[in-house]
Please model this.
Amino acid sequence: MGALLVTLAVAGTVMHLAFTWGLARPPASPVPDRAAYFARWSALHGGYDPADNVWVRGWLSVAYALARPLARRGVHPDLLTGATVWLALVALATAEAGGRWPLLGVVALVASGLGDAVDGAVATLTERATRWGYVLDSLIDRVTDVLFVAALWRLGAPLELAAASAVIALLLDYLRARASNAGAGEIGTITVGERATRVILAALGLLAAGVAPAAAASLATASVAVLSVLLLAGLVHLLVAVHGRVR
Model:
């Protein structure tokens, strides 16, 4: 049954990507260079300068390198956003299958995490950034966050711990969004509980479980426990920053 779920998830991913590629149309104007991409990104994020933070600059540079050929092809960013869900489902299916299957899940999970940055980069480079795309991207991010934690749960992590981790992750992003709506603007505070941390720890949990299937439950539990601590620290950090901004 586990292998069947993996097969179905992979087939769905391949079909979605083929559909996405087939509908692509080259943009009317040339794809800008990295400096111009940074400037466009800054304009879409309340004027926040990515050069001010080495992690943000590095992450956006990776996203630009991956997104540029897709932007030249004219791939629609919303369809790329949808692909991240399929990839997260592949990761979840491999966790359900157990054994060595989670090693494939690592690849799918990391691809899903990178896709979260690539879709936005493609939208920015092709000037297809819309309010609907912003809402869709935020929604899909929360869905994949839950799927990442669910994969660790299916590997054997306690349900209560996994649920707590997912809730804290949702609260962290909800706080950032509400602070922006309250007039705080773009909150540039980078915490230890950001998206990259979630992807890395979930991927490490799958990797460890795939390498040592007999200890999968213990390894997944350790991964979720560390993730929960970092998410909670990130939530407190962001709460303090937001409080200082909106007072």
